[in-house]
Amino acid sequence: MMAATKRDWRQHPIFRGTVLGKEVYDFNLQQDRDGNYVGYLSDPEGCRISIIAKLVHQGGKHMLKGRGLLTGTNDTGEESGG
To answer: Per-domain residue ranges for the chain?
Structure first.
């Protein structure tokens, strides 16, 4: 029996040509009654991107395809002064 090898997620094809920085986004997606996936991405600094997407079949693969909208930049809803 062969031991399972741990895969490095950074080697996934979706990251080809991408420079990975220090930004880390947590996400939360849920499916609504209409079959849409809704939720948000957020980072520790308060940037929040709301997302709505549908599960589609494209190029022989299933994927979520949708749009995101910047909906907040900190807890007060105001842009942070840089």
So the answer is: 22-71
